[in-house]
Amino acid sequence: MKRQDFYYELPEELIAQDPLENRESSRLLVLDKKSGAISHHIFREITDYLNPGDCLVINDTKVIPARLIGEKEETGAKIEILLLKRRGNDIWETLVKPGKKARPGTRVSFGDGLLTGEILKIEEEGNRLVQFTYEGIFEEILDRLGQMPLPPYITHQLKDKNRYQTVYAKHSGSAAAPTAGLHFTPELLQAIEDKGVSIARVTLHVGLGTFRPVKAEEITDHHMHSEFYRIDTEAAEKINRAKESGHKVICVGTTSCRTIESAADENGRLEAGSGWTDIFIYPGYKFKVLDSLITNFHLPESTLIMLVSALAGRERVLAAYEEAVKERYRFFSFGDVTLVQ
User: pTM of the prediction?
Assistant: First the structure.
């Protein structure tokens, strides 16, 4: 299967640059995965598609303000460090720009010395290991100095950091938001629970690899990034109960989907646990747990549109995207949303 099989034309003006004032007022495209039928709604109407006994799976990861702008201590040259993965002892795997001159031994100062970093090592893919030095609590310093690591296709500055955060974000560690969850409000989540739908909270810390383009001609040659996930006993029990009773498991976002599909055994049963996943879901994959998916519109030729195509079929998904373009839906992280059921 070729990368180009997942290409579609998208006018640049349909890439959403800012979040809507009201989270749940996004537009909702509902796609029937079997027939390809499409209908148009407002996101708050999602409750019409959830039934008592169903389980809604959400990713409660929290985005850290992982983008730091500093200066080289030797030259004063501007340098940007993006935190990707904590390695322990204040050592982080990072993405550094410009990278060519960021050699081991380079020291960088942030916030007039409130935080300093030294590049220790260059990893295989060009990422840098950076040792940070500071006084106080790292998370508080990061909250003060760091910026939200918005995707490269968003060119506007975000006025409110919380708008790139779900209302249920809890466990810090993501370099990008699980954006399908941005459409929920506390009131909407309460209405869903009041309807008899259980909500299972899982955690997958989203890495910037989620934006990494597929460059291989054959999609099976693509190297998938690895991300940390955790599922507790309560979440596993809720998901298993829904499956065993014949009800649906609906994932909010591709990250929730990848989490439960990674953790499930051959029979689709989940056990509590944690680990790293590099699961790559594309057409031909047989879902073990997931029945329906709530997700934003994804980039052409991305691993994410491939995942959605595994659920509904490539032709039906591309037809739905063509319809969304025609109807002027808003695309990507701050855009509108689809329900594939």
Answer: 0.91
